[in-house]
């Protein structure tokens, strides 16, 4: 199953990537910038596979750049604290 088919799978995938970035010394701003670029790419080129991803895309599409950057930072924060990740 693709990580995009299941929202929990997506969060786990993102959490692993954030942990990898932190382990090689990337700071939080750099990680958030990469998350913004990824969010922009996904919004423009990938069809959402579930309701959660569709909601995120709709929010992303109506947001200005600063709001999109905030959303990207929040996604990183959500998966960084470990509270919202399913094993």
From TrEMBL:
- Do you know which Pfam families this protein is assigned to? DUF3243 (PF11588)
Domain of life (superkingdom)? Bacteria
Tell me which Gene3D superfamilies the record gives: Protein of unknown function DUF3243
The name this protein carries in UniProt is DUF3243 domain-containing protein
Question: Which organism encodes this protein?
Answer: Marininema mesophilum
